[in-house]
Amino acid sequence: MSSLGIAHLTAALAGLALGGIIVFAHKGTPTHRVIGSGYVLAILVVNVTGLCLYRLTGRFGPFHALALLSLATIARGFLAAVQRRDRWLHTHYYCMAWSYVGLLAAACAESVVRVPALAASISSPSRAIGMGIAIAGLFTLLGALVLPRAQARSFNSRA
Prior knowledge:
Blueprint (H helix, E strand, L loop, with lengths): L2 H22 L5 H22 L10 H22 L4 H27 L1 H4 L5 H34 L1
Helix pairs in contact: 1-2, 1-4, 2-3, 3-4, 4-6
């Protein structure tokens, strides 16, 4: 694994840990802001390093497009919290929650490719891409089902 790959993996693991803490932590506290800033930094590193990795196909591919989408999502969520315009809290929650769902999806897709027992069924880059897209679709469906309920609970507990 290259130093770029190590930076990508390390930032992804940090993002998974920090995002997991944020999911369960009380929102709006100074601790939330510090851990959230660490999460944003980790996701920035994950995506920037991801945009530099071309080992799978040798060219820009669907995972690079997802990295750009992730960068846009995290930027929008972060800016909503900083600028605090109309409905900023909903925008912040929505973007950050979907960012974490995307990170979980990417972790699962990467695990399928890296875990030998799972990777044995993937014989080509196109199959790996197909599997990754299927996992992203599954997480999108799960996120669409779970996030509105979690958001309602989060905002009701603040009232």
